[in-house]
């Protein structure tokens, strides 16, 4: 192959308690408090196998990855530092502008496009969000919209609707269409839901 497209002046750095290089496989195996930095990204994990030719990395245990406004936490991840694509297993992804995704599988298939397998989406940064959508499968076009299949909408943990196919805007600009529910309480109205 062509090899990792390293940018001149942007070194790839690997730090770990143990670092072994297998020259016949072009493979670094790093263990213990692993940290890899490259361009504007940083990967932390308990163990990382990194191929210097393909740019592919397998990170296992306490995986934390950040890059330009995105933060990822997972049990395991397969990433490519060259293409900046990858797959995450049992993870949580925080995107720009308060978009939060969790899933058994999260796959980055384009610069701002993700596939979600058995997961959830919300704009609430809370362990128990005011609202969320849970789907068997979804495609997230960051800054555009969410397409989801077999979706259940939850408000305060209570299922309120089901759609076999669902499209939800996740733009930051105003537009027409489905509005995100606002949940609140007041002394005059009690518990209330707006924009439903």
Sheet with the most strands, sense and barrel status: 12 strands, antiparallel
| Class computed from helices, strands and strand pairing | mainly beta
**What helical percentage do the residues reach?**
under 10%
Overall geometry: elongated
Mean pLDDT comes to 86
Strand content: over 45%
Which stretches of 5+ consecutive residues score pLDDT under 50? none
Q: Write the element-wise H/E pattern from the N-terminal end onward.
A: EEEEEEEEEEEEEE
Q: Number of helical segments?
A: 0
The end-to-end span amounts to 53 Å
Care to count the β-strands?
14
- The whole-angstrom Rg is 20 Å
Describe the structure in your own words.
- The chain has strands spanning 13-15, 18-22, 27-38, 41-51, 56-67, 70-80, 86-95, 99-110, 113-122, 131-141, 145-155, 158-169, 182-186, 190-194.
- With 196 residues, the chain is an all-beta fold.
- The strands form two sheets. Strands 1, 2, 3, 4, 5, 6, 7, 8, 9, 10, 11 and 12 form a twelve-stranded antiparallel beta sheet that branches. Strands 13-14 form a two-stranded antiparallel sheet.
- Strand 8 (99-110) and strand 9 (113-122) form a beta hairpin.
- The protein is elongated.
- The chain starts with 12 loop residues before the first strand and ends with a strand.
């Amino acid at each position: 192959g062509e090899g990792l497209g390293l940018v001149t002046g942007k070194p790839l750095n690997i730090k770990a308690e143990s670092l072994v290089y297998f020259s016949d496989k072009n493979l670094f195996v790093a263990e213990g408090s692993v940290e890899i930095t490259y361009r504007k990204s940083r990967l932390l994990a308990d163990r990382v196998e990194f191929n210097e030719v393909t740019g592919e990395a397998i990170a296992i245990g306490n995986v934390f990855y950040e890059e330009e406004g995105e933060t990822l936490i997972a049990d395991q991840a397969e990433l490519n530092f060259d293409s900046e694509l990858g797959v995450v297993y049992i993870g949580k992804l925080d995107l720009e502008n308060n978009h939060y995704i969790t899933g058994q599988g999260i796959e980055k298939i384009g610069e701002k496009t993700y596939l979600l397998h058995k997961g959830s989406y919300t704009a609430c940064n809370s362990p128990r969000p005011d609202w969320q959508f849970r789907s068997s499968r979804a495609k997230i076009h960051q800054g555009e919209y969410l397409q989801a299949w077999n979706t259940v909408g939850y408000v305060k943990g209570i299922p309120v609707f089901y759609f076999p196919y669902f499209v939800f805007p996740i733009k930051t600009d105003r537009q027409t269409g489905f509005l995100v529910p606002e949940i609140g309480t007041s002394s005059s109205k009690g518990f209330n839901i707006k924009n439903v």
